[in-house]
Amino acid sequence: MVIRSKQKLKIYKSFNIVLVEPEIPPNTGNIARLCAATNTKLHLIHPLGFEINDKHLKRAGLDYWHLLGIEEYESWKEFYLKHSVKSWFISTRGEKTIWDVEFNPGDYLIFGSETKGLSEEILNSNKNSVISIPMNGKTRSLNLSTAVGIVLYEGLRQLAVEKKLFEVMPI
């Protein structure tokens, strides 16, 4: 499927992006904008390293906040009790990569904070669902908003190719 500049993508069913204790407002703002552009719900798990009305957060998200489905949780436990569904935990410690797994509509893609990643407790409790982004051995990690974009678009690519949940429409 080739999408040209004069076409838009209509996404019928997407994913859920979960940020566990994000710290940097522009990263979260960029991710919010990405979620708005892909019909993806954003879940924020406290504590956040910023106020939700932070000007840097809002600036990075531009004027797309009204398009965003967003939900906040006071803790990982609150989120986990509410959403015991298929989840992928993205970490540099994942033995499988995003290319080794099959994403499905509605999956939760869970990312840790910029400086700490996901906790040992979360990773150890979900060993079979921890995945990584392939990188050369010279880098430790990627920027959080970059990582979210890579994983989300790999999932969307799989849905577009295999499950036909997208429609390319003329603008």
Task: Explain what the structure shows.
By secondary structure, this protein is α/β, with parallel strands linked by helices. The chain has one domain (7-170): SPOUT methyltransferase, trefoil knot domain (Alpha/beta knot), CATH 3.40.1280. Helix content is 31%, strand content 22%. The chain has five helices and nine strands, in the order ββαβαβαβββαβαβ. It has helices at 25-37, 55-61, 76-82, 120-125, 144-163, and strands spanning 7-11, 16-20, 41-45, 70-73, 87-90, 96-97, 108-111, 130-132, 166-170. The strands form two sheets. Strands 4-3-2-7-5-8-6 form a seven-stranded parallel beta sheet. A two-stranded antiparallel ribbon has the order 1-9. Strand 2, helix 1 and strand 3 (41-45) form a beta-alpha-beta unit. Helix 1 (25-37) packs parallel to helix 2 and helix 1 packs parallel to helix 5 (144-163). It is globular and about 35 Å long.
Brief summary:
The protein contains 5 helices and 9 strands, in the order E-E-H-E-H-E-H-E-E-E-H-E-H-E. It is an alpha/beta fold and 171 residues long.
Show the helix and strand layout:
Layout: E1 7-11, E2 16-20, H1 25-37, E3 41-45, H2 55-61, E4 70-73, H3 76-82, E5 87-90, E6 96-97, E7 108-111, H4 120-125, E8 130-132, H5 144-163, E9 166-170
Parallel strand pairs: 2-3, 2-7, 3-4, 5-7, 5-8, 6-8
Antiparallel strand pairs: 1-9
Helix pairs in contact: 1-2, 1-5
